[in-house]
Design brief:
With about 650 residues, the protein is α/β, with parallel strands linked by helices. It is built from 26 helices and 18 strands. Helix 24 (about 610-615) packs across helix 26 (about 640-654).
């Protein structure tokens, strides 16, 4: 049955390694996990079963680029699939949901954040779902390299929406992460397919080059590969957006046509660049890690890291984009230890301060008499001085500890633009419904073009006129007006509502516990960087060491085609020699920030971490509010390791 579908629908004569047991498990009604290297055909593991399962296959994917690439593939093979994403209008999303309800769409792709949307959750309760697919499933493990706290909720969502089966897909999972994933979704060990990480066609090369010579070395290495009648498609990875722009311009000037790609570009620009690379119109992309997810281009011949990657997992994903056609491809690492401080600073910048954690806990305690706690993430981020991503992690940890439990989320603000005159809108409805619509119009003052719904004013009008103006009814009406093309509707300020399950917790003790948790994650991330340096400076086969990191013991002991096997053991050049810091040097640099803090009534005490982040140029909500970038001393010590700057600051503070 599945063999016939493979040949008839997808046009493949045989399954690739690992695909058949995963697909058979799903068709037989079990959950499964597929841990295959990048480009090894993970997506087929849900695409084919979706044609045999009775109901919808729901795919959770972390990036729009991943979704679009897979949707294009499905469309080419005549499989009805769609996505609901942030770039769609409300009308487009409604059309997709109608198609799912009618059974016309077999596969629906969403982001994990979509599962918090009131409207989407109501829709999902109306349709049967056969399979929940989690792409990039390592994101749900706290020990994965790009943990996303919202992913931790996916097992609960599976239970809430009564989805009988799950499929987990990833290319980069260590044994610890695989076990975490398997236990979260109750997948039997026999239904975890691991095909190995060794790829015989990838030449792993580490060439130590001093920082000041690195760009020229890259130019000389790329030139023969990108000149001539058949230039080799190549990706060069760097850490920072500005560096991507500068390097692309340098290569272009040197006669090597190159384009920069990063998250700071407009969506249309990124989409156009991606299409040009896929079509062979551009053959060299200089990119941050924003480029590559969902890129299914078989003939990429070169992947170069000019800066250190963020982790072995990131490195494995990025080089995995090369040589998907099975032909030899070169994966060159030119980076040195000079960029290590920047990577470490990213890690330290995400660790919340204990004071910020305590502020969040105090907010919960203050809301305890009401039995529930409402928050908007941005406002809480400002109040606690914790970046949004680690703040989400903190909230998930509070859920896991049983302190709070999510109830629902809603948009705090709705605004709309009339597409017909308000009088004409009211006239479309008679009796009580007409009075209800008139009340909405009256409670939505217009400023030039947009009207903002004042829910408090509407409640007063409802009481005066004897109308049901419940929030649910009002929002349903606005969505109906939007679907009918009567208004253009926008919603803002997602407000999350939590039940408080432990109102009498010990604030100080819990703050200590949570701060310790974040510090352990910080140490784990720093250890991950050290493991990456150890890999690149290995005296044994790089291909073997990389495979062993992911629990694959089947790679050859000597691949014969990495730089170590060719007799070149690397010693990464150190960064520039920096003078030792002391408290006397950091004191004057901290003074401008301390002066500004003294002017703010609700500012936290000037902690060592706050001052260190200021001196190393890391952003926090408080530093952004204080416009710290404008102050002397900001980023003055960005070249120094974070830990060294913090030691000097602590000495200064006494």
């Amino acid at each position: 049955m599945i063999q016939e579908t493979l040949q008839r629908v997808f046009g493949y004569p045989e399954f690739r390694a690992g695909q058949r047991p995963v697909i058979e498990a799903l068709v037989e009604g079990r959950s499964a996990a597929a841990i295959f290297p990048t480009g090894s055909g993970k997506s087929l593991c849900y695409q084919l079963p979706a044609l045999h399962l009775p109901h919808l296959t729901l795919v959770v994917s972390p990036l729009l680029a991943l979704m679009q690439d897979q949707l294009d593939f499905l469309a080419r093979h005549g499989i009805a699939a769609a996505s609901i994403d942030s770039r769609q209008s409300r009308e487009e999303a409604s059309a997709v949901m109608d198609g799912v309800r009618r059974g016309e769409i077999r596969i629906l792709m969403i982001s994990v954040e979509r599962l918090k949307n009131e409207r989407f959750r109501a829709f999902l309760r109306q349709v049967p779902v056969s399979l929940l697919v989690v792409d990039e499933a390592h994101c749900l493990s706290e020990w994965g390299h790009n943990f996303r706290p919202d992913y931790l909720k996916l097992p609960d969502y599976q239970r809430e929406f009564a989805i009988p089966q799950s499929l987990l897909l990833t290319a980069t999972a260590t044994p610890r992460v695989i076990e975490d994933m398997r236990e979260s979704f109750a997948i039997e060990p026999r239904d975890v397919a691991l095909t190995g990480f060794y790829r015989a066609n990838l030449n792993l090369l580490v060439e130590p080059v001093e920082a000041e010579q690195r760009v020229r070395a890259l130019r000389d290495w790329l030139r023969p590969r990108l000149s001539g009648a058949t230039p080799q498609p190549s990706i060069v990875y760097v850490t920072l957006q500005k560096r991507a722009e500068q390097l692309a311009a340098y290569l272009d000037k040197a006669g090597i046509p190159a384009r920069a790609y990063h998250a700071g570009l407009k969506n249309e620009t990124r989409d156009a660049l991606q299409r040009a690379f896929m079509n062979g119109e551009v053959n060299c992309i200089v990119a941050t890690i924003a480029f590559g997810m969902g890129i299914d281009k078989a003939d990429i011949r070169n992947v170069v890291h000019l800066d250190l990657p963020k982790s072995i997992e990131n490195y494995s994903q990025e080089i995995g984009r090369a040589g998907r056609d099975g032909q030899p491809a070169d994966c060159l690492m030119l980076g040195g230890r000079d960029t290590l401080a920047a990577l470490e600073n990213f890690v330290y910048g995400d660790t919340p301060e204990r004071d910020g954690i305590e502020r969040v806990l105090q907010a919960i305690r203050e809301a305890a008499p009401q039995g529930q706690w409402e928050l908007t993430l941005n406002a809480l981020s400002q109040h606690s001085n914790i970046r949004p991503l680690p703040l989400k992690t903190l909230l998930v940890q509070l859920e896991l500890r049983g302190v709070i439990a999510p109830r629902y989320a809603y948009f705090a603000e709705y605004r709309f633009q009339y597409l017909i005159e308000p009088e004409a809108l009211i006239a479309r409805f008679a009796g009580e419904r007409g009075d209800f619509v008139a009340a909405i119009v009256a409670a939505s003052p217009r400023a030039k073009t947009w009207c903002t719904l004042d829910l408090d004013a509407l409640a007063r009008l409802g009481a005066e006129r004897g109308l049901d103006v419940s929030r649910t009814r009002v929002i349903r009406a606005l969505e109906y007006f939007s679907d009918q093309g009567l208004i253009a509707l926008e919603s803002k300020q997602m407000t999350e509502v939590y039940a408080i399950q432990q109102p009498d917790f010990d604030v100080a003790a819990l703050a200590d516990d949570l701060h310790g948790y974040f510090q352990s994650k910080e140490r784990a991330e720093i250890d991950r960087l050290e493991a990456m340096l150890t890999l690149f400076e290995s005296e044994t086969c790089l291909s073997r060491r990389l495979a062993e990191y992911f629990g694959d013991a089947n790679a050859p002991r000597r691949c014969g085609h990495c730089s170590v096997c060719r007799g070149q053991v690397a010693r990464l050049p150190p960064g520039e020699s920096l003078p030792r810091l002391d408290s006397q040097r950091v004191g004057p640099l901290c003074a401008p920030l301390l002066a500004r803090l003294s002017e703010i009534d609700d500012a936290p005490p000037p902690s060592a971490d706050l001052l260190t982040r200021f001196l190393t140029g890391l952003a926090t909500p408080l530093l952004t509010r204080l416009k710290a970038r404008q102050l002397d001393g900001h980023a003055a010590l960005e070249a120094w390791p974070y830990a060294e700057v913090r030691d000097a600051v602590e000495a200064h503070l006494g």
